[in-house]
Amino acid sequence: MKPTPKLQPDRTTILAFGAHPDDIEFGCGGVIALETQAGRAAHFVVCSRGEAGTNGTPAQRTAEARKGAALLGATLEFIDLGGDAHLEVSVANTLKLAAIIRRVRPAVVLAPTPAGNQHPDHAAVGRMVRDAARLARYGGIKELKRRPAHAIRQLLFYAVTLEAEPAGVPPVLIDVTDVATLWWEAMAAHRSQAKTRGYAGLQVARATMHGQRAGVGLATPLFPNDPLIFESLQPLGRAARQF
Amino acid sequence: MKPTPKLQPDRTTILAFGAHPDDIEFGCGGVIALETQAGRAAHFVVCSRGEAGTNGTPAQRTAEARKGAALLGATLEFIDLGGDAHLEVSVANTLKLAAIIRRVRPAVVLAPTPAGNQHPDHAAVGRMVRDAARLARYGGIKELKRRPAHAIRQLLFYAVTLEAEPAGVPPVLIDVTDVATLWWEAMAAHRSQAKTRGYAGLQVARATMHGQRAGVGLATPLFPNDPLIFESLQPLGRAARQF
Amino acid sequence: MKPTPKLQPDRTTILAFGAHPDDIEFGCGGVIALETQAGRAAHFVVCSRGEAGTNGTPAQRTAEARKGAALLGATLEFIDLGGDAHLEVSVANTLKLAAIIRRVRPAVVLAPTPAGNQHPDHAAVGRMVRDAARLARYGGIKELKRRPAHAIRQLLFYAVTLEAEPAGVPPVLIDVTDVATLWWEAMAAHRSQAKTRGYAGLQVARATMHGQRAGVGLATPLFPNDPLIFESLQPLGRAARQF
Amino acid sequence: MKPTPKLQPDRTTILAFGAHPDDIEFGCGGVIALETQAGRAAHFVVCSRGEAGTNGTPAQRTAEARKGAALLGATLEFIDLGGDAHLEVSVANTLKLAAIIRRVRPAVVLAPTPAGNQHPDHAAVGRMVRDAARLARYGGIKELKRRPAHAIRQLLFYAVTLEAEPAGVPPVLIDVTDVATLWWEAMAAHRSQAKTRGYAGLQVARATMHGQRAGVGLATPLFPNDPLIFESLQPLGRAARQF
Amino acid sequence: MKPTPKLQPDRTTILAFGAHPDDIEFGCGGVIALETQAGRAAHFVVCSRGEAGTNGTPAQRTAEARKGAALLGATLEFIDLGGDAHLEVSVANTLKLAAIIRRVRPAVVLAPTPAGNQHPDHAAVGRMVRDAARLARYGGIKELKRRPAHAIRQLLFYAVTLEAEPAGVPPVLIDVTDVATLWWEAMAAHRSQAKTRGYAGLQVARATMHGQRAGVGLATPLFPNDPLIFESLQPLGRAARQF
Amino acid sequence: MKPTPKLQPDRTTILAFGAHPDDIEFGCGGVIALETQAGRAAHFVVCSRGEAGTNGTPAQRTAEARKGAALLGATLEFIDLGGDAHLEVSVANTLKLAAIIRRVRPAVVLAPTPAGNQHPDHAAVGRMVRDAARLARYGGIKELKRRPAHAIRQLLFYAVTLEAEPAGVPPVLIDVTDVATLWWEAMAAHRSQAKTRGYAGLQVARATMHGQRAGVGLATPLFPNDPLIFESLQPLGRAARQF
Q1: Which label site among A187, D94, E138, F8 has the fewest CB atoms less than 10 Å from its CB?
Q2: Do residues B232 and A174 make contact, with C-beta atoms less than 8 angstroms apart?
């Protein structure tokens, strides 16, 4: 792991994990834009350089990721968990992720869903982040002792494809209408991926569908790993039903 | 339907439906207490007088419901949908509930879950409130034309028993620790029901279990009918995982 | 029930049920277009005239439905099951639908899904069509004796909203890219509904999303009521995964 | 991996994976028979020689598998993924399977379901084939660069036991009545397994049950990994309901 | 309701409900045989005379039901809930069933599953028996006051078809191998139904499949409505896994 | 693996696996107490010494586990599968567990549920025990040849947290009211864990809730891996519904 940029950890920092250089932008780029525009810090951890993809060299993919993160106002680091298409669920990799959680000390963690029927790297990162968020809290793990234990406030999963949405689990929706242009630019930063696949169009179609059911332009679905807890009914905002 | 108390409808009013005189207190009394203590209006609609129960006369049950509502700071009305143990899902009954929604104009509606394996009156009220919340929005229903259409902000289901919790659907938790005494008193107001059943103890055991997993004393699980929508990640508060 | 147009029943006729004048066009208009353009007969049964809707008079809605059906090359009849927002699941209504199935003798029946969390009329029609397709096969039902029993080949449910899609059940997708313009025109025929709601846009967003995952422009999801049976693997066509 | 027989890859080739020498015959032997009798090529990849089983030596099991494949008109190869009862989900093993998919270039892939509660080797093969079918499409994986990327048309899971059928997911049924004798012979080729277990009888009971519900003699349930996509309603054939 | 035979209620009586004259024999006839051969009383309540069926007159169906019950050692009564294919879920019908439960005072109640995708009469009886078992316990229902309240020990659902088995819910299996002949004879008593449908064969295929997975000849799956409770692990017998 | 105490294997021995020194006591200590008080043997296998926990040294945790097991009348051994927070699902580890099953030859095996959203060690042990129970039956696995194959009678999963309960799967409940004190003492033996976490209180709240729904004081939910099979309806005891 290379030296990483210094962060100003506080109780609102967002930490987003992606398996490939474009996952975060495609899965939850609009949500990140909302947070950073409101003045909160966001940090991206990308677990490969896309070297197994059909298009784009690792150097290109790295540059695209840097551009995407910069557009969204997020800092970025790359880590090596075995390489693109080679991410394997293991305790050693999970502890690497837990160490990052301890270092960044985020309030909210975003990761791909652990659903089985998607790119195996996505599921692997999702499962390991879920476990890492637990292990970061435990006091006695020797590989993590360099830094104090940290309990995140929430783990939210994002989906890059419809198949990755967990069946039967209702999402929470984040209204990203106001940041649509910025989200699109962050996706478009991944130019090498635009040639052969309609990923960005897929995301917009998904967000349009969720948005229209909620009476807004675009909404990103997120899947909380744990029940949300509130002090009253007021913060629940409103529900999505318009039809 | 008798004349009902005048309400000051605003965007924070809570409207809670119960099949029997004690359902609201047992299923979500703590949540109501939180809302009314914060100065928001709550109104209860009870759909029978408990006349089919093993214990308590309708007169006793009515008095107990009035006492429970008063303790929680809520107004109360009784309606007749066929009588205790005789509630039937029908369009006519559903429209009665929709008319009440139009009259009270609540932000949030609370109702028993429509899960099948519970007292059939609970499921009937849950299903009809769900449909009534839709019908209250439609402009052309002649039985409802007396009052303007109204779109609620959210429908949240409460469960009176574990079986009534919808399988596989994560709840949102409301921290009711600070109103534990008041919640207990509101349940205890239903003295006729205390003789033979441990309902109140069941609720406290459920709330203790949910609370402990969230690191608080007592938490009430609620089940949103529709995905929640937020403007950013910040209002989500925190997640429940402590173990 | 008024006199209805004569049909040429054969083994490929499609019979589509809708609760309201626009349900069929919105939920599966593209699929109907594919079938009728291939020379197969389609017949629509609409169970209300939209008289409870916010916009449009029954006369307007009736005219719009006629225009939509005509555009799609389908015949159309209206039936009365209690009126818009008043459809109730009952044996009498179910037998009316079964009688229509016996008269039309379709190969394939389309109906709204019976999912609970949608307009209650949609769920009511879905449940009753499902039961009616069974009852149409039984020889001894006296209300149906006027015509010989009929076994349909398949019952496929369509969804008008995302909430109406049955959770966890994979759809079959129908590629409607080639009939996109006609589908859009059929939806647009319901002009009174275009004023305040983005129904057509919602359908296109849903179809775009399903289409993109399958590598086609637009795809309509349908939900078979029963397992499909094939003589070999060849007719299965191809699967939807592109991402 | 030893040299394997040359195949004539075309758009109809079937590639079936099994964890043990008899899995394919028991789980989907009838389906294979239908395909090969129609002139399509089938190739079996067996991932162990059954050396951990209670009955039969690896040599016997190998010979039985060859006989079973020959009866069904399929070619056969064995691969080594760690040995019977030792199959482990890993990227290296998954890439071995992906390389086979690239070499054989099948239209349809068959594999055991990835359901957890069955012989762990079955689940391991199911999960790895699912991932391998994705990885075979990606252009940049260096272990796979020897051959061009290949996108299969569908991945269908077969179940060897009832527990292996994914809960709540409707199967597609393949009518194997006409090849019942050949299917039985292919199962019977695994003579060493006939001594102590009623596997063949279990399969026939399952196929009888599925067949009778569909009005045919015997039907094999298959579970598509992805939604099926069709150009119209006609290829859907008919649905299974007879009762 | 006609006069019904006197029963000797005790803590082991079985009360089985069927929608049609043959449902009980087909769905759980073997289980009944086990109980009556062990000296326990069984009583059948059949809710129609099969007058809507394709084959058999009501008189024939009545005689067949009497023969089936006699073979199984059960007493039998017919009740009228609207007639075959006309059973409707209503409070009035549910209270009729609750009154029977109070009269018979069974330990165990058997009923068809309430699954939606089956003959609507089956689902209607299943749902109403589930509710009736609750209402029979409540002290204040005036229609039931003739007899004292009664709490059954368990409600177990049986399935007549595979579709009627609740998805994702594990059954308990009852080993009916020793009563196979008697079960078959009881099914065969329904001669009018044997002409055109393979119901009995379907049941035997289902029971063979469940039996083989448990290492016995034939097993009937039953679906408890509520969790089972035991005093220790010993009465749990053994689990079904043999493969 | 160190030498382990000699057991008197018979058809009633209980074998319980835990990931950490306190898992068995917290998840199913009351059930163990019932069994050993009835004279049946119980043996605990603990797969780590809790060395990654926030509180307690491995030596303390080991002593606490010995005390807990002694209180419950169970024998105990520790095994090493990589260490606390480092348990990894692998064939080698699974075979270690299978070898223990062959040595102890239990009737019933207890293990943590394999649910994903809990401490990853719990899920790892649950999944491996499930697989080990299968592998212990197969005759040809060379690592296991030292001892004869053994088929357990049942595998029952216990949950340490609510999240670990498998969604939508009904438990069987064991009435542990009579051994409440002993269960509490066994949990309290893990003194190092009492400082910062309310684990014991969580268990009692869960057991109270399950008990009250069943009309008993405390009940432990267990989740059978396979359907239960019975010789008649009588051993099913009674169902849990009281509300």
Answers
A1: F8
A2: yes
Q: Do C202 and A168 make contact, defined as CB atoms within 8 angstroms?
A: no
Distance from CA of C132 to the nearest CA of E (A): 9
ipTM, interface predicted TM-score of the complex: 0.91
Whether residue B242 contacts residue A133, with contact meaning beta carbons closer than 8 Å, is answered with no
With CA atoms as reference, report the closest residue to A97 among A14, A17, A22: A17
Q: Which chain F residue has the Cα nearest residue A150?
A: F54
Cα F158 from Cα F160, distance rounded (Å): 7
Closest CB to A52: pick one of D127, D130, D141: D141
The answer to whether the Cβ–Cβ distance between B140 and C53 falls below 8 Å is: yes
Parallel/antiparallel/unpaired status of strands C228-230 and C172-175: unpaired
Residue C34: which residues within 8 A CB-CB, separation 6 or more?
A: C174, C176, C178, C179, D231, D232, D233
Whether residue C201 and residue A212 make contact (CB cut-off 8 A), yes or no, is: yes
CA distance D112 to chain C (A): 16
Tell me how close the Cα of C35 comes to any Cα of chain A, in angstroms. 26
pLDDT recorded at residue F8: 41
- What's the confidence (pLDDT) of residue E212? 82
Residue D201 has a pLDDT of: 85
Tokens for F197, please give them: 């976490």
Could you tell me what percentage of chain E is helix, strand and coil, using 3-state DSSP and rounding each to the nearest 5? 40, 15, 45
Strand bridging mode E238-239 / F228-230: antiparallel
Q: Out of C85, C116, C117, whose CB is closest to B135?
A: C85
Tokens of E158: 């049986």
Q: Burial-class residue E8 by CB neighbours within 10 Å (0-12, 13-18, 19+).
A: exposed
Q: Comparing C-alpha atoms, which of F196, F187, F179, F155 is closest to residue F23?
A: F187
Q: Are the CB atoms for D173 and D221 separated by under 8 Å?
A: yes
Residue A197 has pLDDT above 50, yes or no: yes
Residue ranges in chain D modelled with pLDDT below 70: 1-11, 195-197, 237, 240-243
Tokens 């009360």 sit at which residue? E15
What is the torsion angle, in degrees rounded to the nearest 10, for the CA atoms of residue C30, residue C31, residue C33 and residue C35?
170
Per DSSP, helices labelled H in F55-169 are 58-72, 91-104, 120-135
Taking CB atoms and an 8 Å cutoff, what residues of chain A touch F52? 135, 138, 140-142
Give the pTM: 0.94
* Maximal C-alpha separation, chain F: 53
